[in-house]
Amino acid sequence: MALLYAIVGSIESARFMLEGGAPYVQLRFKDRPIAPHGDEIRAWPDRFPRTRVILNDSVEEAIALRAWGVHLGQEDADRYPPERLRALQHEGLVLGISTHDNAELARAQDLGAAMAGFGPLFATGTKTLKHSPQGVARLAEAVRTAGLPLIAIGGIGEETLDAVADTGVAMIAMIAYLDRITTPAQLDALMRRIAR
Predict the structure, then answer these.
(1) Alpha-carbon separation of residue 96 from 30, 116, 137, 181 (angstroms)
(2) Residues near 186 by Cβ (< 8 Å), separated by ≥ 6?
(3) What is the SS3 assignment for 164?
(4) Which of 49, 111, 141, 159 has the maximal Cβ count within 10 Å?
């Protein structure tokens, strides 16, 4: 049973996902500042206890905003000493790291990651790809061998969603696809489909 891992780029999208009961919401505000929303975000763990809020890129900001976790790309992880990342679990912050192959999965485990993004699975329009698409078969293999929960990510859409969910992956990250989800009923239907 997979869970929705919603990656959002605005405070409005985050509110919609929180109010709809999305289990994971990653704040990836690439083009807008997050600081003006600090007070609101800090209140979310109490207002929406079912949702785990993850901040993108910054350990310090994640701690300051009372986030459940932080998600780092490979380059972001390089900015921190390994011992700093390994200590996060003792500070109550869950670490997620983006990975693209077995070596990066092993590194994520070594750094104390509690989960790892794995992809891109397919071509995607939300970012320029530095790595070749992995595909569903490679994801299924990684799910069996990774040793930690995986977040499938990268170009997952209507035609591929069921096959991705069938791999047994723990979470399915969606970005562009969520733009078509505009009502609570649609969001609920998507979460049920993912968790089938």
Answers:
(1) 18, 5, 22, 25
(2) 180
(3) helix
(4) 111
Task: Sort strands 94-99 and 171-174 into parallel, antiparallel or unpaired.
Answer: unpaired
Q: What is the domain-level CATH number for residue 36?
A: 3.20.20.70
- Residue 116: Cβ-neighbour burial (10 angstroms; 0-12, 13-18, 19+): buried
Give per-residue pLDDT as tens, 37-64: 999 999 999 999 999 999 999 999 999 9
Domain around 141: 3-194
Half-sphere exposure of 68 (CA within 13 A, CB side): 17
- End-to-end Cα distance, the chain: 6
Residues 122-173: tens digit of each pLDDT: 987 655 657 788 899 999 999 999 999 999 999 999 999 999 999 999 999 9
Question: How many domains, the chain?
Answer: 1
Nearest-angstrom CA–CA distance, 8 and 5: 10
Taken in order 133, 136, 138, 144, is the CA torsion positive or negative? Answer: positive
Is the Cβ–Cβ distance between 81 and 111 less than 8 Å? no
CB 98 within 8 A of CB 71: yes
The span from the CA of 152 to the CA of 173, in Å, is 6
Does residue 128 sit in helix, strand or coil? coil
Looking at the DSSP assignment, which residues form a beta bridge with residue 37?
A: none
Which residue in this structure is represented by tokens 């994520």?
A: 108
